[in-house]
Amino acid sequence: MSxxxxxxxxxxxxxxxxxxxxxxxxxxxxxxxMLGYLVGAYLMSVPVGLVIVLAVKNSGLVRSGKTTINPxxxxxxxxxxxxxxxxxxxxxxxxxxERRAARRAAKPKKTPRWQQALNKGDPRLTxxxxxxxxxxxxxxxxxxxxxxxxxxxxxxxxxxxVLVNLIMLAPLEVPLIAFAIAPEWTPATIARVxxxxxxxxxxxxxxxxxxxxxxxxxxxxxxxxxx
Length: 227
Prior knowledge:
Blueprint: H1 2-12, H2 15-25, H3 30-59, H4 71-90, H5 94-106, H6 113-119, H7 123-133, H8 138-148, H9 154-168, H10 170-181, H11 185-226
């Protein structure tokens, strides 16, 4: 169960989802846009997740008492994240950041098509965009595999798939709940959070790499000890 929650959290840290949420928050009628995107995301990810869990169970890839994920992959991924954290902490990524800033200044960045569609302000379009941009990623697939290996009954599988999606789509759900509860306070708070991320984004990324990298290595170690 801990693996399901871990992969749900890493699926939540989806750059596309975070970027789309940020764009929608600064557009007119953000509540309607985010609600449409959320509906499209659920319509795509929940059925696909259920199909994946059922397919993994029926394929024979899941066997009682055994794991399908090689602990070496956990160690490799965890070490990679810790290396990224050390680079951020030492500032050795500064030349790369300067080159990227120079390229952005020399060549204006094109607006992605999904952002152009969002700028039209049509909630019906965001349903389609939410479905397209919520195709399963690596973390989501790993979460579904972890659910299949729990050998739960059908109703429990459905509940866990929905839980993973609730966690994964929290960047959309939390602002929507906040808009409903505190419509006047929410926009100002969102503006402050965005300013904080733009100011301390590297520190947030550093802490995130350290935390996730350590957890993944710990998971690999637990897998070896329990096998």
